[in-house]
Amino acid sequence: MSYLIDANIFIQAQNDYYCFDLCPGFWEFMGSKFIDGQLISIRNVFDELQKRDDEICSWSKNIRHCFQSIDDQETQVHFRAIANYVQKEYTPRHKNSLPHIQNFLSVADPWIIAKAKATNSIVVTHEIRDKNNSCKPKIPDICDYFNVKTIRTNELLRNFQVQFILSQQ
User: Fold this and answer.
1) What is the pLDDT of residue 93?
2) pTM for the predicted model, two decimal places
3) Whole-angstrom Cα distance, residue 124 to residue 39?
């Protein structure tokens, strides 16, 4: 089983709780699991990270080869199904839903779900389900419909039994 990592996992980790200088063990863990194939992501996520001018941009270049293509037929088939579902399900909900649908379909999110479906992976994201049933498609809601499991970073770390031990220098 593999875990497919959303861009927000990298970005929020760097910006909030696993800064490179404070928790290098997190980035060592992520890098090693990417290299051995237990963690994957897609090139769209890599491209998003490369638009930044920060450490995550540099770090991700070292594992560039681990970001998978979305050009395979199975991923393409799943993407079409996701796009059709989102347009059918979200358009009638609210008269202002079209920009949200277009935005969702123009970023990495539907491709993350499609690749996860194609590779039987679990999606790791910080997005949360929309309990209000709004006009904004969210990764966990779409994953639920397509039977793709989602978890957050803490669950990923627990699944790998990772512990970061404090050391002072």
Assistant:
1) 64
2) 0.94
3) 10
